[in-house]
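Large ribosomal subunit protein uL24: structure, please.
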Amino acid sequence: MANVTTDIKRNDTVAVTSGKDKGKQGRVLRVIPDKGRILVEHVGMVKNHVKPNPQKNIKGGIAEQESAIAISNVALVCAKCGPTRVAHKGEGKQKSRVCAKCGSDLTGK
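Here you go.
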């Protein structure tokens, strides 16, 4: 995938629509548009073996962290009606993201 355009931004709340974490909701930590992937808080958890490093004050062991999932596997969550698609309202710089179901503003999320 190369440079996917998306309406999902950092700190948005999204719901996972497919995969092993289907049904979970979380906050977007990072969007990686050139790979078409997204990091969602507490979704796609993997175990990472960490080597101790006393200089950086890092304790060794097995750490859990989020792994990236495909942007196509998530849907933006509207506060009123739940997971939804995104519509756009306005022109030019006045353009804003709105819920496709109920029309409420999603920009302030």
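Notes: The chain is about 0% helix and 40% strand.
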